[in-house]
Amino acid sequence: MHRLISATLAAVLVAAYCPSSTAFSPGAALRLPLSARGNAVASFTGGITAGRSHQQLLRPTPLASPLRPGRASPMSLSMADAKVSGTGCEYTTADGTKIGYDFIPASSPTIVYLPGLGQTRYDSKFNALQSWCKRNNYGYFVADYYGCGDSGGEFKDGCISRWVADTQLLLRDVIKTPVILVGSGVGGWVAIQLAKAAGKTVQGIVGVAADPDFTTDIVLPSLPMETIDRIQTEGSAKITWGNAQYELSKVFCDDAEKNLLLKGGKDSIDVTCPVRLVQGLGDEEIPSDRALTLCDALKTSDVIVTYAKFGTHVMDEDEDTRIITNQIADLASKYFEYDLKSPSSG
User: What CATH number should be reported for the domain whose range is 74-259+322-341?
Assistant: First the structure.
C-alpha cells in the first residue's frame, strides 16, 4: 500500500507551476492555474492532484475492412445474443466474432472498465471495481477485447480502431445507458477515442496510467532494429516493456499511427466530458509527465490529474483502488447533479 505524494514534493511542483507570489503551506488545499486559460486547476490536499492546465517506423497495412473511431464498420454490425446481462455473456459481430463480456445492470451511469494491453477482463482490478460498483449500486460492464480472453480473433489482429468500434456497439446494443469509462493503460487510449466517437453517452473518463501514442514515441524508438524487422516480417514480436512482456503486432502498430492523440497539442483532443487521470510516479512503462501532456491536449476544462507516489503501471494496490474509485465517485456525482436539473428527473 502506498500513500499519495508528500506535501514536500507537492511544494516543489507548486514552485514549478506557480508564480512566485503564490503561497503554499503543507497540508493546506491549493488550487492553481496550469495554463493561460485560467480554468485548469491543481489541487493539493497533503498529496498532489494536478489539473489541466517520429518517426513512422512501420508502414501501414490496411485491415480487410478498415475501422475508424466513430464509424461502425460492416464487420461490426449489431448481432447481440439473447443473453444480454450477467456473467459469461457474448456479443456476436457481423463477421461472426464472439465478444465475451460481463454486464451487471444497476443505477446509471454504468461503469465500463477497459483493460490494459493484452489483459483479459479478469485482470487485477476486476474484483475491486466490480465490488465497488455493487456496493454503490452502479452498473458494471467489462468485455474482453478482440483477440483477448473469451473473445474471438487473434491478438495479433487486434488494434485500437477495432476495440473502439466493438465497444461502441456494446454501448449501443447492450448497455444502453450513459457510462463512465475507466481505462487502464491502453484502455485509457481506447476510452478517449471512444468518447470522441460516442458523444454524450460517455459522461466521464477515468484514465489509469493512460498511455496514448506509446507505440510511436516510447516503445518503438527503444526497440532494436531486429525486433522491428521481426514485427514487419512475421507480424508480431514479444517485447519486454517495463517489468512485463507484451506481444506487439504490426497491425496494432500500424493502426496506432491512425489513432495518435498528442501530436495536435493544446486543446486538440475533442473530448468535452469530465476526465480524471490517475498516474503513478513509480510507473515503469510510461513517463509520469504523460498524464500532464494528455491533460493539456484535452479540450475539456474539467480535467484533474492525480499522482500516486509509489504507484506502478498496473495501479492495483489497495490504495490505488481507493484513488481510482474516488475519481469514479466524483464523476458519477457530476452525472447526478446534471440529471437533477433535467425536466424528466422529477
Answer: 3.40.50.1820
